[in-house]
Amino acid sequence: MTRNSIVILLGVLATGCKGETVTKDNPDTLRDLDICKKTVEEKNKLITAMQEEAARTRPPGEIVLVIEGNALTVKAGGGGGGTVQHPIDDKQAAAASKEFLNLVERSRGAIQKCYEQALKKNQGLQGRTVTLTVSASFSQSGVFQTSTFLPSLGDVFDTCIKGVASKWALPGNSPAMTFKAQVSLTPS
């Protein structure tokens, strides 16, 4: 190359690099983001509605035990004005909570199988961990009554996990209680 052609080439290259870089959002990405935001809003409204419905249908005097990590919170149930007729003592709450956590832990393999079935039906679950909030109510005799699992991972998962929970039972000497705990699910 001659000296003049190098100077011209450098001048062309320098001219092409001048000016501001303008980025433009992809319309498809913006549309997908809007759909995702609307879906999240709908999901949150549904969760709130389901939690309100669960609170309304809870038997009077029922006790709710919320287990988050190592913390145990005891709350009065809804349905009967929110007052616990027969207060539970700390030892009884701790024992019942431990038994519930043991039930969930013994069911871990079955819960994972339900999750694996959901993975086959829902590609959106692939490669991510889901924190499942398990809520289960038991009668005074320790018999399983109802359960909810949030988030919902589809009909296949919901049917499977409700089948697992329906086999749960607590010792018959505990008051009517609802337990809430979290289970982490990861693809294997």
Q: How would you explain this protein's 3D organization?
A:
The protein is an alpha+beta fold and 188 residues long. The chain has one domain. The protein contains five helices and five strands, in the order ααββααββαβ. It has helices at 3-17, 27-57, 90-106, 108-121, 155-165, and strands spanning 63-68, 71-76, 130-138, 144-150, 177-185. The chain has a five-stranded mixed sheet, covered by helices on one side. A hairpin with a 2-residue loop joins β1 (63-68) and β2. The termini are far apart.
List the helices and strands and how they pair.
Blueprint lengths: L2 H15 L9 H31 L5 E6 L2 E6 L13 H17 L1 H14 L8 E9 L5 E7 L4 H11 L11 E9 L3
Parallel strand pairs: 1-5
Antiparallel strand pairs: 1-2, 3-4, 3-5
Count of β-strands: 5
Largest sheet: 5 strands, mixed
The SSE string, one letter per element, is: HHEEHHEEHE
Show unreliable segments: 78-86
Give the oligomer, counting copies of the same chain as homo and different chains as hetero: single chain
Give average pLDDT, whole number.
75
Distance between the termini: 60 Å
Radius of gyration: 27 Å
User: What percent strand?
Assistant: 15-25%
Helix content: 40-55%
Number of helices: 5
Output the structural class. alpha+beta
Instruction: Give the number of domains.
Output: 1
Large-scale geometry: elongated
Please state how the strands of the largest beta sheet are arranged side by side: 2-1-5-3-4
